[in-house]
Design a protein that fits this description.
With 151 residues, the protein is α+β, with helices and mostly antiparallel strands. The chain has a single domain, classed as HIT-like (HIT family, subunit A, 2-Layer Sandwich). It contains 4 helices and 5 strands; from the N terminus they run ααβββαββα. The protein has helices at residues 11-14, 17-22, 62-83, 130-149, and strands at 23-28, 32-37, 46-50, 87-91, 101-107. Strands 1-2-3-5-4 form a 5-stranded antiparallel β-sheet. A hairpin with a 3-residue loop joins β1 and β2. α3 (62-83) packs across α4. The model has no long low-confidence stretch (mean pLDDT 91). It holds the Pfam family HIT. One of its GO terms (molecular function) is catalytic activity.
Length: 151
């Protein structure tokens, strides 16, 4: 697979303090790294970031694109199983953080924003408690590792 280097100033490429303040590492897959977003307004909200820098999804070709989208789908499947949500919302923005990444947001009909897009940066985010975050991280990591060992 063709993999590019890092982009200076990109917190996904540089694994910076800004990144650690916003998300918690879960696991690294073939083409992506999975993080638990510290904003747990929607429990289980994750980020699936490409392991090298591109700005746009269309910059990926062939096997790279297929593998990355498969990993996003795998994380979504695991999140739906663990959280019992009705729907996973997928967000790809990149206005201020251009590194290709998906926001995967589990949603339930009882959520205040059901039937609407999730708010990416809410004014009053709910941060998960450490024990809850650690349990989610462990469950997500185990299910993803089990799935990827069998592929």
């Amino acid at each position: 697979m063709h993999q590019q280097g890092v982009r200076p100033g990109c917190f996904y490429c540089e694994h910076s303090e800004i990144q650690r303040a916003r998300m918690i590492f879960i696991t690294k897959l073939s083409t992506s790294t999975v993080f638990l977003n510290r904003d747990q307004t929607h429990p289980g909200r994750c980020i699936v970031a490409l392991n090298w820098h591109v700005d746009e999804l269309f910059e990926l070709r062939g096997k790279e694109l297929t593998q990355y989208i498969q990993e996003v789908a795998d994380v979504a499947r695991v999140l739906k199983s663990i959280t019992g949500c009705k729907k996973i919302n997928y967000g790809i923005y990149g206005d201020t953080v251009s590194h290709l990444h998906f926001h995967l947001v589990p949603k339930k009909p009882e959520d205040d924003d059901w039937d609407d897009a999730f708010i990416n940066n809410p004014q009053n985010p709910i941060t998960g408690k450490d024990d809850v975050n650690n349990r989610l991280i462990s469950q997500i990591r185990q299910e993803l590792e089990d799935r990827h060992e069998t592929l």
